[in-house]
Amino acid sequence: MAILLKPISLSSETLNIYKPKSKKSHFIKKISNSCSPKPSFESQKRIISEFNPKIPLEQAVTPPSSWYTDNGYYEFEVDRVFYQGWQAVGYAEQTKDPHDFFTGRLGNVQYVVCRDGNGKLRAFHNVCRHHASILAVGTGQKSCFVCPYHGWTYGLDGLLLKATRISGIQNFDVNEFGLIPLQVATWGPFILINLSKNIQPQQKDVSNIVGHEWLGSCAEVLSANGIDSSLSFVCRREYTIECNWKVFCDNYLDGGYHVAYAHKGLASGLKLDSYVTTAIFDRLMLMKQLYEKVSTQICEGGSLDNSDAFDRLGSKAVYAFVYPNFMINRYGPWMDTNLVLPLGPSKCQVIFDYFLEDSLKDDLAFIERSLEESERVQMEDIVLCEGVQKGLESPAYCTGRYAPAVEKAMYHFHGVLYDNLST
Ligand code: FES
Question: Where's the Rieske domain (predicted)?
């Protein structure tokens, strides 16, 4: 027997017609019903406590290397850091039109984001309810999701439309076998999902509160610095790096410390002594879920005698780090974002999306040259990050120190992470 809920093209195996009681009753399973045991707090407490964020920056030591190498700590961290709160997963143009979709992974969570036929943005766990096959792959347009394993078919609203060859099945309520929904929203040009267990899925429009929950008071700062929906998407680049996800974040948050040594081409286009870091340190507010999770680093462009770099970077570069893993870089006519996804204690993926002011989107020579320069910087960073991971895994290293004049944002990141893991 097969179950048909909506008029779609049917296979010869489809036998019965079935009507759902209501669309809402379908969404009864939540991530909190996961069968996997959650990592215990007690077993990780010792590792977390090896960092003390109360010590002032000038005297503080960095988190221990076990934060970057220990498998049990890693699993605990993913659960606490990525499975709650808003997380950036994509950009608005990916689901501009009805039937657009894209897929992704956050820790062990496989998700699909789509715009249904009525124009409503939706997100679901990308897992078939029959035998757990991944349902959708990549990006594109679909009118429904057909499982590649046995053909169960779901609408873009998550409803199970067709269950093939289930003749004889008993105690099967189709309303309980739709895709499991996730909270989804947009802020400016970005798409966010929220895996928190205590949020009702698909509640009404939450966009108004997302800016505050995701960015705190920095939402206005970012908008004022040209981080908005007016730029056009240019391209995406993806890098798999053999390092813990935090190594990449730390590298980003050192206030330009490494630029003069490791990115000589980039350094010539920036006034490195003009770096200004802003991070708000009220971790008491963090405990009330009102904390500031964004730090910004602002650097002036370089001198006019290096016109190549100046063209790309403009007169000011703004680097915003949105805890835990999203970086927004606005410079000259460009904006790029870096999304750092944990793949294991010593592996991560970084997704770069590039956006450009409309007036330059047809200037292919400018785009090509800019992307080449950016690619060179990423390659240099990958070498640095993989070298640091090897050092962290060495018995010679446990903790390090901060350079107080430049590494404020990194210290802020570690403090927010500590509070996130401790509460
Ligand atoms: S696992 Fe999807 S239809 Fe069987």
Answer: 86-193
CB 252 within 8 A of CB 338: yes
The whole-model pTM stands at 0.86
What pLDDT sits at residue 40?
A: 65
**Ligand 1 pocket, residue 131 CB under 6 Å:** yes
Binding site membership of 165 for ligand 1 (Cβ less than 6 Å): no
Query: How distant, in Å, are the alpha carbons of 18, 33, 117, 131 from that of 160?
Result: 10, 19, 15, 14
For 226-274, what is each residue's pLDDT tens digit?
A: 888 899 999 999 999 999 999 999 999 999 999 999 998 776 666 666 6
- Which stretch of DSSP H or E encloses residue 381? helix 364-393
Task: Return the residue whose CA atom lies nearest to atom 1 of ligand 1.
Answer: 131
Give 3-35+86-195's CATH code, choosing from 3.10.450.350, 3.40.50.300, 2.102.10.10, 3.30.572.10: 2.102.10.10
The reply to whether ligand 1 has any atom less than 6 angstroms from the CB of 133 is: yes
Summarised one tens digit per residue, pLDDT across range 35-93 is: 656 666 777 999 999 999 999 999 999 999 999 999 999 999 999 999 989 999 999 99
Residue 224 and residue 220: Cα distance in Å, rounded? 6
Residue 251 sits at φ, ψ, to 5 deg, of -60, -40
Q: Which ligand 1 atom is nearest residue 148's CA?
A: 2
Whole-angstrom Cα distance, residue 54 to residue 269? 37
Q: Measuring CA to CA, which residue among 25, 6, 21 is closest to residue 202?
A: 25
Considering the chain, tell me which residue range(s) the CATH 3.90.380.10 domain(s) occupy.
Answer: 220-422
